[in-house]
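Page 47, continued from p. 46.
Same chain as before, 179 aa.
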Amino acid sequence: MLNKAILIGNLGQDPETRFMQDGTCVCNISIATTERFKNREGERQDRTEWHRVVLWGKLGEIANQYLRKGSQVYIEGKIETRKWKDRDGNDKYTTEIRANEMKMLGGRRDDNASQGQGGGQYQQQNAAPAQNNWQNQPPAQQPAQQSTQQPSQQSTQQQHENPFDDGAYNGPSDNDVPF
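Result:
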């Protein structure tokens, strides 16, 4: 069986981050995806869906540091529904995406709050939060002498993940996709 969600959208508000008692970061973001279509009269229509996304551990810390309202992001994860009780003791249910991969899309913005945004790819490993072994997979392992570079500079030098790709392909890249 497969439980996988892939989203590309924009943040509707700044990330909300908290830390568990053991120090694990939990970051909640809300992503809007918009479907554009023409209705029966030929008029262009937009339909926006909102998605709750939860990022754990180092992935959540990175999201909190670099994402802001309006940031464009690629999220990959699984759909989960959890049950909780409100203040009156009533059962409530929330369906959300538990992210295990995040790519910051779009260009670098001018405001200092989102410095370095764009192009970074991060993944979670060992998807068992109770074991507290969430890890960040940076875009590329840079030598120590390059550690003074900004994250956006490092992400443009990322190594290809595809072992069959020798880097010689000069065709369209992700930055050429018009969305």
